[in-house]
Design a protein that fits this description.
326 residues, alpha/beta, Rossmann fold, 2 domains, seven-stranded mixed sheet, five-stranded mixed sheet, 13 helices, globular
Length: 326
């Protein structure tokens, strides 16, 4: 069945809540309103206020309550309304949720899913456009996924709900209604930690995730008209990362281009590039290239500023063209 990303998320939540009474949702406006993006629309009426809980405007409290619930055997899905608002809960996530299994020598787990929309391109401006993946990827004990398609939105959400450890589930808000695709009715899972080659190519490898996957695929179409063959890899899982697929793609194409809309300095591309240099240095025929957002405090609101900030298909194609001809 054809669905949008947000329909896939909503339907998966409904199916898994019906299947498992331990699963409940909490967050700001998730209940009566159905979420600011309507990701939980209809679930309050279906499951009631005990399982779809409207929380006060306190991200620290939302995550703290969710950690406690996970500790006693429930399966909370905590929604942070925008990724930009997650920082008040930073201590709870990285010092409590991420460390619970380690500090108890495996006696306790923290089966918590934190859903949050991230990314720019929708005129969200400074406080509604941030990319937070690199910040949280620094902390072992948490897992991070970023589905780019409706198929992966379901498969990764089901994997996250079944995982015994906390999973940060990043939803690029620009994909919510703009990206459609087939979502099977069967109970499949997309394993956390496994990338996917979305397009085969021979001249260079492009690594991306979230909305940048679709910009990279569009760039590959541009390059194909110039007889440049780009392999496009959807990372999907950002912690853990599927290094094997990354290294295989680099060894096949001998060139690597990493794309993300987070800032250039200390973005996830820096770690990916470093690992490629360590493991595949002799396979590279050209320097590593990154196409990212600039090192600015935030995404501008106005049209020209936002377009200047955001990577897009043309910028990716321009960088790939230079790399392929290096």
């Amino acid at each position: 069945m054809q669905k949008t990303v947000i329909e896939s998320i909503r339907d998966t939540l409904r199916q898994e809540m019906t299947r498992d009474e331990r699963i409940f949702i909490l967050g700001e406006d998730v209940g009566v309103l159905g979420g600011v993006f309507r990701a939980t629309d209809g679930l309050y009426n279906e499951f009631g206020p005990a399982r779809v809980m409207d929380a006060p405007i306190s991200e620290l409290a939302i995550i703290g309550v969710a950690i406690g619930a996970a500790g006693v055997g429930l399966r909370p899905v905590a929604e942070i309304e925008f990724a930009d608002f997650i920082h008040p809960a930073f201590d709870q996530i990285v010092n409590e949720a991420a460390k619970l299994r380690y500090r108890t020598n495996g006696d306790w787990t923290c089966p918590l899913v934190i859903r949050t929309p991230y990314g720019g391109g929708v005129h969200g401006a400074l406080y509604h456009s941030q990319s937070i993946e690199a910040t949280f990827a620094h902390f072992p004990g948490i897992k991070i996924v970023a589905p780019a398609t409706p198929y992966d939105a379901k498969g990764l959400l089901r994997a996250a709900l079944a995982d015994p450890d906390p999973v940060l589930y990043l939803e690029h808000k620009k994909t919510y209604r703009s990206i459609k695709g087939d979502v099977p009715d069967d109970d499949y899972i997309v394993p956390i930690g496994k990338a996917q080659v979305k397009r085969q190519g021979d001249d260079l490898a492009i690594f991306a995730y979230g909305m940048m996957l679709h910009e990279s695929l569009a760039a590959a179409d541009i390059l194909a008209r110039e007889n440049i063959s780009a392999q496009v890899v959807d990372l999907r899982s950002l912690l853990p990362i599927d290094w094997e697929t990354i290294f295989e793609s680099v060894r096949k194409t001998n060139r690597a281009l990493i794309v993300h809309e987070d800032t250039y300095t200390m973005g996830l591309g820096a770690e990916i590039g470093a690992r490629i240099a360590e493991e595949c240095f002799l396979d590279l025929d050209a320097p590593l290239v990154r196409v990212t957002g600039p090192d600015l405090p935030g995404v501008p609101y106005n049209e020209i500023g936002e377009q200047t900030f955001m990577p897009n298909a043309q910028k990716i194609a321009d960088a790939a063209r230079r790399l392929a001809r290096f």
